[in-house]
């Protein structure tokens, strides 16, 4: 199984901005990002930490695959 990368909240913002998401709000340490794709609101929420826990990162990846094909996301989250 490929190894999960170490990512921060800032890294995730940059990653998802490349897919058309933009930050819409922040409450405490949690950031909410949004994109409108084919008339559908696609929202993701994640913590803005210096290093996101592996379990949390896997959950973010799993949620993001609802909106972005896994083939495009995998290289961003996992080492090949």
UniProtKB/TrEMBL annotation:
User: Is S-adenosyl-L-methionine among this UniProt entry's keywords?
Assistant: no
Q: Which Pfam families match?
A: HicA_toxin
Keywords, comma-separated and alphabetical: Endonuclease, Hydrolase, Nuclease, RNA-binding, Stress response, Toxin-antitoxin system
Q: Which GO terms describe its molecular function?
A: endonuclease activity; hydrolase activity; mRNA binding
Q: Which SUPFAM superfamilies match?
A: YcfA/nrd intein domain
Q: Could you say which protein family the record assigns here?
A: Belongs to the HicA mRNA interferase family.
Which named protein is this? Periplasmic or secreted lipoprotein
Q: Origin organism of this chain? A: Ignavibacterium album (strain DSM 19864 / JCM 16511 / NBRC 101810 / Mat9-16)
